[in-house]
């Protein structure tokens, strides 16, 4: 037996002895990890999903390997295929699988260049080793030393660096909401949120920062912020406005939607949104693969949904649209046209 540790909970799985990890099982694990990475990619389509069904049905060992991928990524989030394979092989060889042990294995693989950080938009090693982080579907609130409130959205990670010169929050992944407190307003040190694209300087405010692949999005709910890109371009964003910036430039500020902060209350509120965009947003709060078939992507949706119960949100879709929720497992779900 071995256990994957994640936070306060563990999941115990049956493992084979080292000499029982046959070449056939190793190949099945490799294929399952590759299938998982393929379905998580932006290029995956219905034909890939059909091909996976055929692969799973062709051999019981394929189903066994796919379950191992399910079990692993359910605890560690969206681990890409090659990293999943490395960790799975260690598990099947009866290695002790504490979370720190898993991270060492992932770090080693990344360090050897087998799969570079650039090839995977999420950074699982940095994520789990950050000062504070949330798992997929988790939302966490922190109070910093200066009284500032920090809320981490799903699958987010930050490092906190306070010194005599500045109060710095480094956003490694995901999204945060910052509310500077009364103690913070009396602190002469600037409050900065840093991302790979630049810095956001708080001007006594409440604002959110979301990190995407090539840009950072900022939404200001009170007072204002000053954005400085890595190239030195600057822009002010006032209350009720939002903007995006890259390493080189900022977009013009536009009006934000008042409910854009609903996630801090465990809610996803949408107004006349395409169904595929809604599913993409909802998938941020759900472990595994959640996709929308192109045949139903054009439907428009309005409503409020709890992000801590994505199953309920998916069920609600079947009451409003001619769609079905097709689940191969809990961790692979497709919203498709109702037959």
Automatic annotation (TrEMBL):
InterPro entries: FecR, FecR_N, Ferrdict_sens_TM. Residues 131-225 form the FecR protein domain. This is Iron dicitrate transport regulator FecR. It comes from Halomonas salipaludis. One of its GO terms (molecular function) is sigma factor antagonist activity. Residues 30-72 form the FecR N-terminal domain.
């Amino acid at each position: 037996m071995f256990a994957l540790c994640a936070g306060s909970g563990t999941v115990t799985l049956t493992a084979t002895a080292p000499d029982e990890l046959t070449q056939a099982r190793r190949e099945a694990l490799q294929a399952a990890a590759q299938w998982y990475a393929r379905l998580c990619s932006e290029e995956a389509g219905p034909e890939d999903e059909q091909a996976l069904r055929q692969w799973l049905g062709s051999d019981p060992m394929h189903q066994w390997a796919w379950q191992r991928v399910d079990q692993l990524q359910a605890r560690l989030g969206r681990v890409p295929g090659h990293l999943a394979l490395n960790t799975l092989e260690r598990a099947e060889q009866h290695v002790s699988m504490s979370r720190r042990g898993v991270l060492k294995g992932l770090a080693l693989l990344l360090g050897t260049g087998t799969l570079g950080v650039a090839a995977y938009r999420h950074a699982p090693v940095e994520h789990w080793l950050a000062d504070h982080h949330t798992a997929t579907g988790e939302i966490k609130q922190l109070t910093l030393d200066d009284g500032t409130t920090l809320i981490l959205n799903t699958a987010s990670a930050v490092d906190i660096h306070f010194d005599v010169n500045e109060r710095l929050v480094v956003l490694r992944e995901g999204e945060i909401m910052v509310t500077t407190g009364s103690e913070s307003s009396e602190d002469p040190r600037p409050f900065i949120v840093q991302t790979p694209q630049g810095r956001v300087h708080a001007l006594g405010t409440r604002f959110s920062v979301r990190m995407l692949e090539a840009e950072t999005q900022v939404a200001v709910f009170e007072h204002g912020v000053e954005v400085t890109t890595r190239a030195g371009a600057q822009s002010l964003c006032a209350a009720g406005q939002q903007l995006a910036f890259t390493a080189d430039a900022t977009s013009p500020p536009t009006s934000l939607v008042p409910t854009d902060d609903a996630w801090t209350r465990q809610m996803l509120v949408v107004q006349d949104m395409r169904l595929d965009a809604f599913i993409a947003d909802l998938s941020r709060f759900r472990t595994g693969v959640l996709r929308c078939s192109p045949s139903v992507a054009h439907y428009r949706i309005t409503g409020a949904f709890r992000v801590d119960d994505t199953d309920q949100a998916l069920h609600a879709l079947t009451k409003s649209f001619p769609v079905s929720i097709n689940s191969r497992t809990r961790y692979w779900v497709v919203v498709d046209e109702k037959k």
